[in-house]
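Note to self: keep these together.
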Amino acid sequence: MSALNVAAIRADFPILRRTVRDERRLVYLDSGATSQKPFQVLDAERNFYETCNSAVHRGAHQLAEEATDAYEAARANIADFIGGKPADLVFTKNATEAINLVSYAFLNATLKSQQGRDLPAGSEKFILSAGDEIVVTEMEHHANLIPWQELCDKTGATLKWIALTDFGRLDPKSIQEVIGSRTRIVAFTHQSNLLGTINDVAAVVTRAREVDALVLLDACQSVPHMPVDVEQLGVDFLTWSGHKMLGPLGIGCLWGREELLSAMPPFISGGSMIETVTMQGSTFAPPPARFEAGVPMAAQAVGLSAAVDYLRALGMDNVQEHEHMLTQAALTALSAIPGVRIIGPTDSKDRGSAVSFVVDGIHPHDVGQVLDDLGVAVRVGHHCAWPVCRRYDVPATTRATFYIYNDLDDVEALVQAVVAAKEFFGA
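Structure:
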């Protein structure tokens, strides 16, 4: 049994009222890519535009004051949701940009150091030398892999990665061996978007601290689905996207430790992130303004704050418990279908609600097409995690991801659709 009233939750999501493919009920199992939005979020964003739309941190008129207040109140509410302080939360357009912000802090600090330029106090943590190491894992989303590849390519640093076991988990021995004395930062996912694995953050953080390395945690698949507290995690940076947690598209978040954000040179420059400007040079504002050049996404921040309120009212423990129930049911039922193989942990221990699988004799894209014809929306492909597919020797997978508006009927619809795909292709 679940503590969530799924019928009541579904009533809050207008898109779930529609039908697809010859008037079939929409079974939306692609929340890992993007979640649907409740009326409460849509109303909050529309209310901003209807009542106080203005460029924040700029005008002296009443609308500008109200818009700025709404924007900063959203920052405080969202920061509190993950146990942080508003001054340590930077708004970005998505998690990809948030990760790039940190990677470019290393690049910009390194280049300025080489040219003898002034840098903020404490910036030595971001200066790289040839032979320094950046560590990721073999299960990373491309957004937490390619920025570090690029950083290494530009600075002469070396990219290393923690290996995976055959069961879809980080190899404990590899954690100890790969993170070493030259490691400057370890960037890894909290929960894999393809495998569903919830990683042992404490084990990685403990090893990183032994060698004085920074830690960035990609929390795109964890903040929407489980209780997350940055102080308990002990990481230095946390990144996630709003659109995966009932919020609007176009807004992401970077939380960072105050002393580290203060030591980082800016990523994007322009208006609002400065203290003084002359024709000869500029000085920069303290964080978070230093990293929010240009007119910010105020309406989206207000919408994301409403999403936080919605999830907080449900209780993140209840959200996690509900998804655990659905995941266990899906793993059990899919594994019982002959020819279906789960890619990732086959039990629900330390596992999130992303369930990826392959069907013998049928390409995952073809499986997805049959599911779509039956009204079941899943994702197919390599899920922006191509190295994971190579590690497990599959061309792609079919992936179902569950959320608060799904129930056991949706699990059953998925299972029946997979059986129908097998019958259609004669597999």
